[in-house]
Structure formats: C-alpha cells, structure tokens
Amino acid sequence: MSVIRLIYTQVPADQADVAIANWKQHCAPLMIKQPGCLSEKLLHSTQEPGEFISYSEWDSEASIQGYLKSRDHQEIKRHNQSIKGASVETKLYTLVQ
Predict the structure, then answer these.
(1) pLDDT at 79
(2) Any idea which architecture 3-94 has in CATH?
C-alpha cells in the first residue's frame, strides 16, 4: 500500500512566487527521481496566497526514510531555507480502501 506524504507550508504572501519557482526548479525534479517516489505535486491555496501543500506518493515508508537520509533531501532543505518566514509541518497518511 502506498504512503502519502503531505508537507504543509506557510510562507509570507510576498514569497509565494519564490516558493513556487523553488518547487518547480529544484524540489520537484529531485523528489520525483527518488527511489520509491511515485508522484510529487504542489497544491496552492485559492484562499491564502502563502499556503501550500506538497503532496507526494511513495511506495513505502522505507523509501521515505531512505530519501530523508539522501543528499538530495539536504539539497531541497538548502533551497527551502532561502524562503524567509516559512513554516513547515510534515504528515504521513495511508489510503483508506
């Protein structure tokens, strides 16, 4: 069964375009090439300009743990640190069938 990883992110409204560009240019390309990453999408709130959800689907929690130990994860964290005032919360879910 796949695991859904949601990263809830809030950035200052004036940093929304920076966050989107960062995801498109740096984060998504690195995420989708990770072993076990089945998909990676970014959701942008229609009501709050600085609110985002990174939605990724993985084949297992073991694949997520492997990614978290990777150089690519460190690179993504480095790129995200350039967005001042961001808050991040990560949660894992399984699909109810």
Answers:
(1) 80
(2) 2-Layer Sandwich (3.30)
